[in-house]
Amino acid sequence: MATAGHLDTLVVDADTLTSSQLESIIHSRASVRRLLLRTSHCEPHMDPPWALRLLRRVAPYLEELSLVPATRSMLAELHAMPRYRKPGLRRLEAEFFAMAKDEEPVMEIAAPSEPGTGIAWLRAFDLPQNVTELLLRAYGHSLKEVMLSAGASKDADGEEWPVTVATETLVPMMARCGLRVLRRWVRPAHRCAYPDHCRAQRKALQAVLPASCLVLCGGLDCDRRGAHSGEDFDFNF
């Protein structure tokens, strides 16, 4: 990669890079607008120190970030990113959540306080429920588009977050998050197992989200039927 200058997109996959290549990336002076960070599944805790060093180095110009998997330390870094240059980080994809053995997914995420900052686009896949809610609440003031991998369950007794989520769980959670500027809430197609329950749940969600917000499902038996868009309404990072 370039050692100076600017990169629009940087893909760092620890499973395909050597230690010397990772060190070269970390010590590069090139600024980065969009970072896709894939930490190795061979790491003992899947939260290697080099990943945090890289996040801190690219923070000044970073606008889009994909974390697979996300970790407590990585998400805790988010609040510092808008301090360097506005608007700061605007798009976040967090897929899966890695924890050390016996670690509880309890954490704090500080929201940016500067006007005009904060994540506007979030794709949260298979994160623990409390981590999902923390992200939504921290950026509720700025989020405009959200995709959650939360499927609709037939009833509360069959709930298994995030594959099947009861309306009694999902709707109050979304209501608590202060999503006052949200324009689009999307459920991915692969989490639409019960279309009738999905439609009923999304109707309940509509009641607690802004009136102009679209509450969509990418399932072929739901909103994507006849839609002129790709799978999940092209909600891709």
Describe the fold and architecture.
- The protein is α/β, with parallel strands linked by helices and 237 residues long.
- The protein has a single domain (7-217), classed as Ribonuclease Inhibitor (Leucine-rich repeat, LRR (right-handed beta-alpha superhelix), Alpha-Beta Horseshoe).
- Helix content is 24%, strand content 20%.
- It has six helices and ten strands.
- The chain has helices spanning 19-27, 49-58, 72-76, 129-138, 167-176, 195-206, and strands spanning 6-13, 31-38, 64-68, 70-71, 91-95, 97-98, 121-125, 145-148, 184-187, 214-217.
- The strands form two sheets. It has an eight-stranded parallel β-sheet, with helices on one face.
- β8 (145-148), α5 (167-176) and β9 form a beta-alpha-beta unit.
- α1 packs parallel to α2.
- The longest helix has 12 residues, at 195-206.
- The relative contact order is 0.09.
- The mean pLDDT is 83.
Q: How many alpha or pi helices?
A: 6
* Shape type: globular
Distance between the termini: 22 Å
CATH second-level architecture: Alpha-Beta Horseshoe
Mean pLDDT: 83
Beta-strand share of residues: 15-25%
Q: What is the count of structural domains?
A: 1
Main sheet properties = 8 strands, parallel
CATH fold-level assignment: Leucine-rich repeat, LRR (right-handed beta-alpha superhelix)
**Low confidence ranges:** none
The level of helicity is 10-25%
CATH superfamily: Ribonuclease Inhibitor
Structural class: alpha/beta
Strand order of the largest sheet: 1-2-3-5-7-8-9-10
CATH class: Alpha Beta
- Radius of gyration, in angstroms, nearest whole number: 18 Å
